[in-house]
């Protein structure tokens, strides 16, 4: 009886949905990202594509359309047909771009159907070992001698840069923000003593901290991070309510039918549940974080608002 | 030190690891020959393969592609005037004239052998002095980089074979082209006529256009030269004479030292190294007039420099876990996916990996030499293909190569535009090499100069109060004085005769 019921279930389900969704997907899908081949975005795309093509039963092609901080790819994807066959691997930079660019060839929130976040990761505030006793000590030192403490960041308008500016705004401490070409260059400058602090992801900071070269003063997420439970948050030390995480996620052009978006969302969540996939994402410094479309939309909307405010207040040149 | 190196050798001499080392340098070599397809493209394509290999083997494979491509890059530069990287631009300067005067085999042999020696010197430095080199590299801050680049630009202004004014003008053009894109200090968009230019002009498309495409146009416009030259490919002509070999000893030693030093500086090293080596050879040569016409020391020194640099380039990557350039970043990415986080503890925590990779460089360079020498005959045969058949293939390959870098059609169109520009420049005796140098070094200078000003509150004296920077300023001063003195001298001699 039970067996009979179970076998009939798919049939019932199939009758309930329109024909288009029923056949979806019946050809190859594409996952577009806006960064160079071989980078983190590319790697995550390939890991997801491999697993999702298995569950969806169709090949999945990774397409790199690099340029202008990922906005070239976002502009491209937002204009593609909302048929579910084109999706984009997005990163936290999507929310930054919405605040940083004077005009973009797409609507950052309304132009997309957000499927799910894949991974979230915090930033770490690091200094050379023994330099500052705590996050509080750093902020006090900065307040005592405004503009004397140098924060190296991975580029003007990067999330790392904006996080440093936000820290200054929220605490009232004044820092000197020094741009480098990428987190590795900023980290080298910290080692060599050219800057005093670097705010960057765990992949840049953790190896140095594990070797005793850096102290991690604080972490930027609202709550303590499961990977580093001993590290206090910025919120609990110097700036209550401080909460910055970056993320990767999947988005599609606006107007994808709910059933199709649902199919993709299930495939994404299934992929994230595979240990090999979640381990690889964790090795890149992120916490696997399947979400609903609404949660991802709210995350992006919230970040766009925060970054708009930071860019305005810090007087960062818009592009 | 020796114990650890032997441990490394024992890792790399396992048959399965050895096969991947061979595979890596072989692919690198092939990729290097293809115009425009760089190590980045090859490594990112092979990255998924490394998911199934252990960390040491992946790293040996990927690193092999990297330094193997340096060898390969010289082949296309010598035979076809097609530099794939800024360092092989210098190889074109002497290599291509050699090939055109029917000495391609000799040029390839000298390039391969100096590359080998340079690579070996680089590996030795890596084994013996990785830690002290790291300490020095960390002392290079923004002021030092800014002054180093000025020194590089000055040295390079002596590269042009024509007049100094012309070569300065070309450096300026290169700097101007390098300005396109987002300003690193403010993020402001400069000369971004279309969104595709937001990240600047691609180095590959500039190099391929100015050198490769312009050469194709030039040959196409000279009907008489269309017949393939009669070629001698006797093995005897491939080896240098005893006198030639002797004349190369010091250039190779100087080139390897310059390359080893500059390579260890994250980010900047390799590009400057071969230009510096070339400029030094020219400056200290008894016969500077021979340069630019196929002078062997002018080929050997930069070749040994860029290969030494590509080995010592691993110093910051291996000792600090900080990638020196985009290729290193990819290699580190592969390690991370293998669950190994490279950092200062790599040498202690993963001695097999650390020393295995270094030993693989040693073995890889020997393999490269062994592949290269017998292949010389084959490469020279390539020149027997009539131009009208060879060149269309080259143009297609250039387009594919340029496109593969950033998957951008704009880059391909720009390559053709630069090709026409290069052709016009050649007709008016303006040389392309200084353009490329300005393009690479200009943004580095601006970036580091402005960072210095930001860091030290606009204080110019910082360049003189920091010791390394002061030494570099002094070297630049000496170069200027020598330059003025020798040109005055030349004028006096000219007046006397």
Automatic annotation (TrEMBL), chain A:
Leader sequence residues: 1-21
Organism domain of life: Bacteria
Keywords tagged on the record: Receptor, Signal
InterPro entries: BUG, Bug_dom1
Family according to the record: Belongs to the UPF0065 (bug) family.
Record's protein name: Tripartite-type tricarboxylate transporter receptor subunit TctC
UniProtKB/TrEMBL annotation, chain B:
Keywords for the protein's UniProt record, in alphabetical order: Membrane, Transmembrane, Transmembrane helix
Domain DUF112: 18-437
InterPro entries: DUF112_TM
Keyword Methyltransferase: no
Keyword Membrane: yes
TM stretches of this protein: 105-133, 145-161, 168-191, 261-280, 320-341, 353-373, 385-403, 408-425, 468-488
PANTHER family: TRICARBOXYLIC TRANSPORT PROTEIN
This protein's name: TctA family transporter
